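Comment thread on ticket #2218

A.B. wrote:
> Attaching the input chain for the structure job we discussed in standup.
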Amino acid sequence: MVRGVALFTQPRVVTLFTSASQALGRSRPGVVLAAGVAGAAVLTGLIWLLGDRLETVALRPDQGAAWYYWKLPEPTFWTRLSAWAGYAAHQVAFWWLIHRGRTAARGRDAGLRPVNVAALAVNVGFVLLHVLQTHLFYDGLAQDVSIFSSQGSVVLLLVVVLILENRRRGLFFGRPAPIGAEVAGFARRYHGYLFAWAAVYTFWYHPAVATGGHLIGFFYLFLLLLQGSLFRTGAHTARWWTLTLELLVVVHGTLVAVMTSGPDGLWPMFLFGFLGVFVITQMHGLGLPVAVRWVLAGAYTGSLVVVHAVRGDLAGAAGLAVRIPAIEYALAGLIALLLWAALRATRLITNGRGHSRP
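C.D. wrote:
> Ran it. Output below, let me know if you need it in another format.
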């Protein structure tokens, strides 16, 4: 498999794509991102166009919040193998290309390197493969793993971003949390592997069906795969782009909650919960004047009060809005603590082995 993936990085295979991408993006990361977003929209549109073919698949009745509806009532060896083999091949290929990109060159380029083009090609190829696999076998990974593993993978990605950006923008109103440089450095060096897992795993968890919630989620995942493919380029660290990826969870979470639970459901928890993280943390890394930040905080608070007043549950507004921020910040602290403990234990073991040598 590694040899097969390595073919994508051979100069004769990627020369045409590399020349075109460098011409477009060497000094203009925005052009690369615009083309990538357009490609994500096209792939999402393809899933939508083919969606009618899957409406006749018979599924079990919905059994509650912990039940994933879109899976076959009677899976077979081949339906499972098609999903897990496709996921494994996609995951290993993407990880290998990230490793190749980390070790092959240092620094950043404005445009795309051959390994970036290879990563984009691999991700597009496996997206198309999963669409085909869905129409032949239907099932994704959801048949064998919990729905919470899919949701948790994306939450984990967002939480690690908070750790990565802690020194630059702080964690609480511009003030950094006491996360050591060693922990932050480790997260920065290896976060690409974690983020690639979160995006690829979540993508293969779902069959490529065309419900509104799935289409929104697939578009978001395609943008995350795009971001993961742009390692060591100027586009990868463009601040407004990375913030957009963080904030798209507001759109996705809110719309899916409305679609599944209706206007009287828990959509305000997702809307104001994720926007609360923006007000507390994310907006402080944009270089905005203090006055603008106060205006944004005021607009957030006012909207929260108005929405809950109209819904008639103003008394519970604060408690509902703090749930998601509380979970994210608690997880950020826990992950940072676990990383610190693991790094410290590794250092002690390594030093102990060094002292024990004759």
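A.B. wrote:
> Thanks. Noting for the ticket: Residues 323-356 form the longest helix (34 residues).
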